[in-house]
Design goal:
Radius of gyration: 28 Å
Shape: elongated
Largest sheet: 7 strands, mixed
Number of strands: 11
Structural class: alpha+beta
Length: 394
Amino acid sequence: MHQVFLKAVPILEKIEKAGYEAYFVGGSVRDYLLGKDIDDVDIATSALPEEVKAIFPKTVDVGIEHGTILVLYKGTAYEVTTFRTDGEYKDFRHPERVTFIRSLHEDLKRRDFTMNAIAMDKTGKIIDPFNGKQDLTDKRIRTVGKAEERFQEDALRIMRGVRFVSQLGFEMEEATYRALEEYAPLLIHIAVERIYAEFSKLLEGEFLSKALTLLVDARIHHYLPELAEYEKEIKKVAELCEATRLGEEELWALLLYLCNPKNDEKFLRAWKMPVKKIREIRDIKAAVLRREKEDWSEEMLYRTGLKIAIQAEKVYRTLKRIPFSGFPQKLEALYESLAIHNRKELAITGYDLMQWYNKKSGPWIKEMLENIERAVLNREVENDKARIKEWLQP
């Protein structure tokens, strides 16, 4: 058994000693069976929230209405959730109510995909009522029970399914795929923030190309912010990324470049992503457009900044199908050779100019600083206060 589970075994033992059942469940068990890294574990129990709190001296009510208690044990926090069944779903996302139960089988039955409906006891014994382990072996994504019901209960499961394709490279089981296709319109009922979170994880997957192709083939993109009319462009991203790994911001910039909407800001804001990320993605696209017209010069690199320049060059090389090898080092070397790396490194300030010219502050200072900045960059003058003052003399 993995060390992360062994460390948490005392939690299960304490719950069992109090007369209840407790198991490891969910993604940690799935990833353990797949041989992947595990950061933390989730625990499910027949003990009610108040009973869990009575067992452990240090707890936090993080989601007690849904049966989840955070147990603090020897410096580590563990989410312990009571077995439950979900009531009727009214908004295609959340159940109207949850009912706490004592049956592990019934708890696993309400979960999304068979690979996430596997439990493990403290000895490492697997409890797998829906053959999730076999689906892992067969590299197949299949819902627990009828896919139509699972997706109508919680439409975000549609995005989760595609995200798992991206992360694992598995095939979508036929009935699950058909339901995915049929119920994709329900995504309009899901908060954009939740869709964006799943899409972001999807973009980071090793099998992104496969997932994006599925997204378009199942017409899911029609129900994602701003993407309905960009089938060809999404497929182009899928094609370009078959042999290339880009970061999330770089992928967004690539998508933005290919879609080329009338308003980049509106396109990105529709996803409710952070303003800082929107700015970075737009900066990358702008740098790619500049890069198409010219190679990196010292001034262009200075104006762009090293981070954005490297990201833009990755996107540019992806578009042009140019190998990545060697380019970051060349840009880094060119950047290091710059006379200055930002205006703060200039040897003079606006205050110096005001003193030298005995003039009040005004637009003239910004204009003059820009001229000095350009001259220092082009090595027309040394970045030294006395040298700059001398250079400025008529």
